[in-house]
Amino acid sequence: MGRKLAGLTPEAANQLVRYAWPGNVRELENAIEHAVVLAQGTRIDVEDLPEEVGSALPTTVYTPGEIRPLADVERDYILAVLNANDGNKARAAEQLEIGTATLYRKLKEYGQPT
Predict the structure, then answer these.
(1) What's the CA gap between 38 and 113, in Å, rounded?
(2) Helix 100-109 × helix 89-96 angle, to 10°
(3) pTM here?
């Protein structure tokens, strides 16, 4: 594409790993081309990725050597669902099958605005 980019932000790289890639390598290639065109800075960020890739929820699959505390996995998942719902707490709580009061309490624990 003729642009010089320094690579991906860690967040963008994480989103690429989270996405299932049903189209395999061809879909990955298209996603990267899309991101290169949209990138504003010197690195590709999550906002530059196609919508379906940028909003991919975190995977909870166990990977040997990458054991994370359950509380961290829960926090990441709740925040990802909230982000996927554009900050709509009522809809996120409904999808998570928890009460809105529970969601607000957890967001407060995470230091997130409520």
Answers:
(1) 29
(2) 100
(3) 0.54
Task: Look up residue 1 and give its amino acid.
Answer: M
pLDDT at site 58? 66
The whole-angstrom distance between residue 77's C-alpha and the CA centroid of its chain comes to 9
Q: Strand pairing partners for 35?
A: none
Residue from 59, 56, 10 nearest 31 by CA: 56
Query: Inter-axis angle of helices 24-38 and 10-18, to 10 degrees?
Result: 150
pLDDT digits (tens, 9 = 90+) for 36-78: 999 988 999 988 999 888 877 766 666 677 777 888 888 888 8
pLDDT at site 61: 61
Distance CA 66, CA 63 (A): 5
Q: What percent of the chain has pLDDT over 70?
A: 93
Domains of the chain, CATH where assigned: 7-54 (1.10.8.60), 70-109 (1.10.10.60)
H or E element in which residue 79 lies = helix 70-84
